[in-house]
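User: Mind token order:
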Amino acid sequence: MAAPQNPLTRTFASVAILLASLGIAYIPIPGLQQTIVVVSGTELQEPLQKLQERFQQANPSIQIDLKFQGSQDLVNNYVDDKNDFKPTVLIPANGELLAELESRWQSQQGGTAFQDKPQPIAKTRLVAIAWPQRGKALFPNGTFQWSRLEVALQKRNWSEIGGSQDWGSFDFITTDPTRSNSGQLTLSLWAQDKVGTSNLNPANLSSPTVQTLVNEIKRSVYQPPRSTDVLLREFITRGPNDADIATVYESIALYRWSQSKTSRGEAYQIYYLNPTIETVATAAIVRREVGDGEKKAARTWLKFLAEPDQQAVFVEYGFRPTTPGVKIEAIPNNPWQQDIPGAKVDFNGQVTPPPDRPTVTELIRLWQRGS
């Protein structure tokens, strides 16, 4: 016959069972719970944060830790291992940046940097924005012209380029091309217009006129922002007289348009560049310190982002879809339906891919050497 159990022992046993059951209910089971770190360009911050919540409700065993950096910073920080975290997925503003990362990785480490072929997530184009009166003075025919913008940089004052003397100095803003994709695209299109070619390459960038142009831009843009989202926030906050015209992504220009109207009492105008560059935010699962569980979780996340319901969210934030069959016009509350001045779903001008990395590298070098 078993000896009677001490009441205190029974109490401890009951508590232990209770704690164990609570642990099973609330503590992730090792091997089943996965956390992936997703590092994206800042232009995707709002839609990814919204989709993060939706994804985790459907996939409670996978946690998404979102980080945001300028796209060139994103590449540099990963290759040089400067982050204080270990990325699982990288999503810079265009696939060419991943090609640069792969090339640098192979030369330094050997082998491929990615688990799978990079996947397009969402796309957008480079546009210009300007406050209404400034835009009408600078582009009286309603069409964006790089030559007019260059004259404005040279003259420096609105009174000399058709504007009011009360407007003071002319202020153009673009992002830092050493850190941000949109700044690189701006330099590329401007240099392309300057040399009169549709095929910009390192050879035609050696022209003295291009170096003079880059010097002029660098002198005119004081402390360029590190990313496009930071740029647009500053553009809205500073307003006319401190920020007159800027180059940004169409997506973020559409999404933040209502904020500019609320903050300034009048909203900015969008100008489409012709030609413009289409940039495709592209995701890749990295190899460094990514195990099989993280890789599987990351693949689930990227598959989720490509589904039509998630692509519709990107459209709501001003991006163009990458998944075939998703139509902008069919998505309720898309920003192109908000009567935003200058916004166009269908653009009749020329849309080109981003410049290759050797060309971008040369543009960055010209910027760094500029006075």
About this structure: The CA atoms of residues 9 and 15 lie 10 Å apart.
